[in-house]
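Question: Send over one sample?
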Amino acid sequence: MFETRNSRPNIVLFMADDLGVGDVGCYGNHTASTPNIDRLAREGVRLTQHLAAASVCTPSRAAFLTGRYPIRSGLASPSNLNRALPWLGGSGGLPANETTFAELLQHRGYRTGLIGKWHQGLSCASRDDHCHHPLNHGFDYFYGPPSGLLSDCRASETPELHGRLRVQLWVATAGIGLVPLLLLVPKLAGWLAVPWTVIVAVTLLALLVFASWYSSYGFTRRWNCVLMRNHDILQQPMREDRVSMLMLREALGFIDRYKRGPFVLFFSFLHVHTPLITQEKFVGHSKYGRYGDNVEEMDWMVGKILDALDQERLTNHTLLYFTSDNGGRLEAQAGGAQLGGWNGVYKGGRGMAGWEGGIRVPGIFRWPTALEAGQVIDEPTSLMDIYPTLSYVAGGILPQDRVIDGRNVMPLLEGRVHHSEHEFLFHYCGLSLHAVRWHQKDCATVWKVHYVTPKFSPEGSGACYGSEMCSCTTEVTYHDPPLLFDISRDPSESQPLRPDNEALFHSVVQKIEAAVQDHRKTLTPAPLQLSMFNSVWKPWLQPCCGTFPFCGCDKEGDIPPNT
């Protein structure tokens, strides 16, 4: 018997970090075992053309939370350096005037919890104003590392945050530091009468330059790798080897506390982001090295939460969703081993906003009493669709004072309609529009044009191995006319169409260009949350357990969860 629309289900949302669409069994992977995620697909609905609104975490998650393209909330980056929020001590983040799905559900009587990665900022003007904090965006409870997990969080790993910039800063500092030495030698040898004031001034300048950047980058683990419960810092730096199991404990506790419902639990994994911290029992467990081990541990955690729902007899009354914030990271490598995901047949990966591998992600819904098991839907859908879909199932009303780009997918999931409401989807790389897809209303054809594509390094390699991530605006190729693909027949984007082999080439391009113009008319200026000013580390905003700058504590067991 299917649920009536008056019933409000519990909601559990799983979001992996940098998981490739080809990394789980139900999407064609045979080297990693993911029985629990596969079970969700078998018992629910699997989407094969599910798309992130951005190819990196901060803007993608903002779109997921708000149902809006990140350019509307100011979370599209104007530069290639900071495409995601780099510092907990920065002032950028999800603006207070954006309404998240958690706020909508909170108003419908839901208890709302976020366990895991947030990465939408913390504070604006002082370290305790918490203007961007999850509790200021509709969540009743938060537990996790607000900035997620980086290789910087493990002392033995190569630093990840702005790695190339750090090298340049070291070189520049060394160069400036040599100047006083070069002045001192002729001074002592009597070759040149260099005033001591000049030598001292240059030495102080070198120290100032060093301190200006090392005060942030030299302590990344302490500044960014922080574990919080609500507004309280529990560990600084966090014990990265334990945090995932603590998150699982918190998720199970949240379900137990609010099992009488309704509740929404957003479980935001640290898996499968580097440094791929995995419990000993999963090390060497997969056929795909450290990355596969981490995927399998994540699947095991999904299983533990499914078991809890089963034990509490909540399964039939719980809408469950699994996805990733963007595609797998191809450039993540160490010692010849691949530390990032596999994006299946799709070209590109994380950071590439146009190519499918950067934005096509797993999408699985399960709600046993409302959705027919075993369905596979090959229609364009978006992470932004979660917002209006949850509003619908909770009986809420969408905000009328803003553009909502997501669409309610329940009619599609329930089989009441067979065509996605998305006619056009716009694929941004920061502020730059790289690609657009057009899903024709009268047929199954999905066209896609690329106006900008990244230059791979080395050429033809399929990724930007010469840098941390492909660029949005430099080292790119501009296409005029744009590249055109028929995604419905060529999902790997390997056969670009031309006027001489596609009769509809010009009409399709013109149709999409008209849609771009209409879309741009709906955009209104928003403060750039990822501007250089908002992104730079600010000591007065740095969350601190103790007296700044002597921040540090481990009191994870001292502060009990809210009851």
